[in-house]
Amino acid sequence: MPLTAEQREAFEPQFRILRDKVARSGRFDTSEDAANWLHENVHSKLTVDVEVGAYIYQTGEQFFIGALQTDYMTNSLNLVMVGRAQPYASWHSHGTHKGLYWRPSLDDIDVDLEQRMTYGYTSTTHHGGCAVAV
Q1: Predicted local confidence at residue 116, as pLDDT
Q2: Where would you tag: which of 72, 83, 90, 124 has the fewest CB atoms within 10 A of its CB?
Q3: What does the pLDDT look like over 5-61, one tens digit per residue?
Q4: Cα(134)–Cα(84) distance, integer angstroms
Q5: Inter-residue contact 100 to 127 (CB < 8 Å)
Q6: Total-model pTM
Q7: What Cα–Cα distance (Å) separates residue 35 from each residue in 8, 10, 27, 38, 57?
Q8: How far, in Å, CA of 48 to CA of 50, rounded?
């Protein structure tokens, strides 16, 4: 479901800040460290129920996060690969919806498999708590 005009207006400044923060996130020792960073520094900061995501790339022994993306939807995200580099993993947030436990769906898993990802990470919110699913 698309964001309303009011939700999008509230989210846009926050998204610019989060996108810039991701661009400055640096390198990580593992893809899990990168996904956890995204969970703590992006997912936990969302105030609008919207899905955002990014690819995680490997270079040598280290990992880095690609551009933060959104489709301005509350229940879907279509990550777009930029350039020819093959992502190592994907990460996306299932938004801030409280009360239900959002898990990676078979669709999430199928997309990661089709794109030859090693891991797919999903940040979820459930009953006031948060978790990262691998």
Answers
A1: 61
A2: 83
A3: 999 999 999 999 999 999 999 999 998 899 889 988 998 888 888 889 999 999 999
A4: 25
A5: no
A6: 0.80
A7: 25, 25, 12, 5, 11
A8: 6
Residue of higher predicted confidence among 81 and 98: 81
Q: Which amino acid is at 60?
A: G
Q: 72-94 in b/e burial notation, b at 16+ Cβ within 10 A?
A: bebeebebeeeeeeebbbbbbbb
Look-up: residue for tokens 């498999």? 113
Where do the DSSP E strands lie in 1-134? 27-28, 52-59, 62-65, 69-70, 89-93, 119-126, 129-133
Enclosing domain of residue 17: 5-133
Question: Per the structure block, which two tokens stand in for 123?
Answer: 């940040």
How much is the pLDDT for 112? 58
Residue of 128, 123, 125 whose CA lies nearest to 36: 123
